[in-house]
């Protein structure tokens, strides 16, 4: 009951003040409409000079780019020159992880985001606030997930569990100022924000929209999506963006309700390209100063990713490939993670999804020295919307995950552990116009 109660509170914070109209008015004064036959957003082409001050239609989490054709599950309305948006998701699920180290628990993965955008001189300013009740709706010591590692609980490294997200997952602002017809300067940052490192965070990727479970490669790819202290600046030049960040590289501690300020002692740089509305790609590199609480080693992190999205007549297809590498400087070790995930929405109400991963793990036995093990996780699932309205969508889904691992891990994890989830998913409806911000 506690999980359901706090999820209802989270949903209440997202309730729209007014119903989003079928064709909303953009701050530029142009109504955004989507034509699925031509796959274009009329009046909002990324190369239109009159819209060059607006945040890119490819904008994803933080300052990362994703395909502009990604469907927007959000509520949107105008008030006094402000464009106000709210979106998020609540999963209520039963999670059963197999094998001797597995566990079965009821839990809720959830998050909600508010955004406020306004003209600021020739440019725009956008505020974001993202919240999560997972510190209250995740079973201790977190969400069970075989072979997952990263962060701590009760002073010990988390193993075979995914940590809950922080209550204040993002508190940031984004300013964009046009410098020329196709050149825009960008400034982003805040006490809880996302540096220019890695792909769009998995909780915001369309390819992972029906998957409540975090990727095993999360801490090699996009774990910096909540960093307590970030400053980012960069330039968008037509279909290319170059940016750099200074940020606090330490992972959040166990106090999920607090903001843990520290020196901006880490840095990153990212190059992104969006050759069309259906494609985006990025390469990024960063140096993280002492990111892990129980590991004094600093690390280099590299990531590369490509995302593809295509609107269908009665659905959508989103796919992402991501590679991440962590080089632990003092130890001299390198860990790689490879991820391929895809979600197909067809006949409006139906979803088929998959996530395939190969990832190196060296923290499965924190009390002893062990080599890195190559772990495979292969997830297949499906979902159907029980309620499919303009304002909201309620879906019932399930998935199953098979694992591969070295034989040396059989004693700890069993021969062939299999895990599964059954879940309900609640979120705003699809505005049918593609991703606008």
User: What's the architecture in CATH terms?
Assistant: Beta Barrel
Helix-and-strand structural type: mainly beta
What is the H-and-E element order? Answer: HEEEEEEHEEEEHEEEEEEEEEEHE
- Distance from N terminus to C terminus (CA atoms, Å) equals 36 Å
Stretches with pLDDT under 50, minimum 5 residues:
1-53
What Rg do the Cα atoms give? 21 Å
Residues in helix, %: under 10%
Q: What's the CATH topology name?
A: Porin
How many helices does DSSP assign? Answer: 4
Give the domain tally: 1
Strand order of the largest sheet: 4-5-6-9-10-11-12-13-14-15-16-17-18-19-20-21
- Average pLDDT figure: 87
What is the 3D shape? globular
Main sheet properties: 16 strands, antiparallel, barrel
**Approximately how much beta-strand content do the residues carry?**
over 45%
CATH class: Mainly Beta
Explain the overall architecture.
With 437 residues, the protein is mainly beta. The protein has one domain (2-428): Porin. It has four helices and 21 strands. The chain has a 16-stranded antiparallel beta barrel. Strands 1-2 form a two-stranded antiparallel ribbon. A two-stranded antiparallel sheet has the order 7-8. The longest helix is centred in the first third of the chain and has 13 residues, at 2-14. Residues 1-53 have low confidence and may be disordered.
List keywords for this structure.
single chain; 437 residues; mainly beta; two-stranded antiparallel ribbon; 4 helices; 51% strand; disordered N terminus
Q: How would you concisely characterize the structure shown here?
A:
The chain contains four helices and 21 strands.
